[in-house]
Amino acid sequence: MAVLDFERPIVELERKIQELSLAVQDRPELQEELQRLRERLTHLQREVFSRLTRWQKVQLARHPDRPHALDFIHGMTDAFVELHGDRTLRDDPSIVAGLGRIGEFRVAIVGQEKGRDLKSRQFRNFGMPQPEGYRKALRVMKLAEKFGLPVVTLVDTPGAYPGIEAEQHGQFYAIARNIYEMLGLQVPIVTVVIGEGGSGGALAIAVADRVYALEYAIYSVISPEGCASILFRDASRAPEAAEALKLTAGDLLDLGVVDDVIPEPLGGAHRDPHTAIRRTRQVVERALTDLVRIPVDELLYRRKQRYLRFGVFEEPHGEKEENTRF
Fold first, then answer.
1. Residues 186 and 91 reside in one and the same domain
2. Residue 315: inside a domain, yes or no?
3. Are 198 and 247 in contact (CB under 8 A)?
4. CATH number assigned to the domain comprising residue 226
């Protein structure tokens, strides 16, 4: 497992516990010392993770061992059937889309997949979708609408792919079209930010009735490195930019961007993926249970009002008013 700098004291203590666990089999008198170290480990984990900076949470959101979209899809759904291609040009592996069942609900699922090792990351384009990926996502969402299936989306991307070919194929239009279509999609939509939520590349599959974020997920208009490069002309000032961006799950909840934060296991989702996925499934099932009861007209009205409420502007006299226009 990859180890972040602030995790090192925890990992070192875990190694001592592992060594002592082996020794205690032959020396039972070490059992008390082993228990003491385990209690110390729990205390250390709580202490470290209670005072993480925003930049450290960014690192957790990007942790290479963190569960990705495919992990969540296979852990949350039964009988998942993946669908491929945008029916225009080609398939984009950075977006996984298909049909499955979550509990009692038949759903369409769309997730951004980064890949696990170098080969799969290259195949998945490091989770940065091309226009073909967004068209595939929309095709599956429209299919869900046709058959009255709720849509569940899993966000985990640094952003849409910024290459020349992507722009030539209409990257900006594909993102804008998805946002427009999702606002009017006549079925419930639930989104979970499971890792990184980068700019329009994330929003293109995140216009939803309920939006949740894992505890150490991030969601912002730009990456801290990109922000630092633009504002300070120095990408190394990314930690400073992360503080200003207020991009953590807690910040998003305070700002009203997400509806709730899904707690991760102590130490992060990469420490116990099974528990993180199980908790996410429970939250999604509860959201679907609520949303399927709402009439379509009311559902669409609430969805649009949700996004119209974002942002404020100041009148010359200094009073803030809600922005009621796109």
1. yes
2. no
3. no
4. 3.90.226.10
Count of structural domains, the chain: 2
47 and 184 share one domain: no
Amino acid at position 144, single letter: A
88 in Cβ contact with 135 (< 8 Å)? yes
Does residue 222 share a domain with residue 151?
yes
Structure tokens at 17: 């516990």
Query: Looking at residue 326, what DSSP letter applies?
Result: -
Provide the CB-side half-sphere exposure for 170 (13 A, CA).
11
Q: Is 118 exposed, middle or buried (0-12, 13-18, 19+ CB in 10 A)?
A: exposed
Residue 28 domain-assigned? yes
Residuewise pLDDT in 10s, the chain (326 residues): 788 888 898 888 888 888 887 776 667 667 778 788 888 888 998 999 989 999 999 999 999 999 999 999 999 998 899 999 999 889 999 999 999 999 999 999 999 999 999 999 999 999 999 999 999 999 999 999 999 999 999 999 999 999 999 999 999 999 999 999 999 999 999 999 999 998 889 999 999 999 999 999 999 999 999 999 999 999 999 999 999 999 999 999 999 999 999 999 998 999 999 999 999 999 999 999 999 999 999 999 999 999 988 876 667 765 555 554 43
Residues 45 and 72 reside in one and the same domain: no
Handedness of CA 70, 151, 125, 235 (dihedral sign): negative
Q: Pull the structure tokens for residue 109.
A: 């699922």
Query: Residue 135: what are its φ and ψ, rounded to 5°?
Result: -70, -35
34 and 175, same domain (yes or no): no
Nearest to 128 by CA among 100, 80, 165, 101: 165
Residue with tokens 């984009």: 92
